[in-house]
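Now for a specimen:

…
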Amino acid sequence: MAQGCLKCLKYTMCVANFLCFLCGVAVLGFGVYIMVNFEMAALTPTLATLKVANALLISGIIITCVSFLGFVGALKENRCLLLTFFLLLFLLMLVELTAACLLLMYEAKISELVQTDLKKGLDQVKQKPGNSSDVMWDLVQQRLDCCGVENVTDWGEKVPESCCKNNCTTNRVYRNKLQGCLPVMKNIFEEHFLITGISVIVLCIIEVLGMCFAMTLYCHISRSGLGYKL
């Protein structure tokens, strides 16, 4: 009976880590897609050093590597890989919880920094119009149905076509004239805050379960004297 439960646990770990591996590959691919198709420096020149694409690439690599360790460790019943998997999951959970706490503590400062950087990026586009930076601002304003950082007056007299409902030259009716892109972004973040929080909690629960499964297999292998099976 015990052997049957442990086999079930072993293959459950293999399936779960394989799914996590696929998720890691998807995150990695999404990071590459953003890096190729989006230029965040046009929106936030200062924060461009903290590129979302780079964060996704790093996250994808970490997820694929950790899930691969868990998959092989469970399949081969390798104590070394299982222990490494356990420690990496524990460190990842600590990093995630620390990042979540920092975001909550410094939410106002982060919002102020983003606002300042968005205005800086918009000023750079106004000074040098007609380049690839305009495309990013047009894309954001069309997708979010907004204009400027705070409102349309941020553009001054040179209002882009993406701010107009029809044509700026013939019909100067702006989309959400009093609504800038920053308030819209804040609203989107607030609307999805609960979902994000639940996702973080669920992720931590999955990681705790993964650590429990890994340690259970590790202890069983140690007691049965199987050693490092390759």
Notes: The CA atoms of residues 56 and 212 lie 27 Å apart.
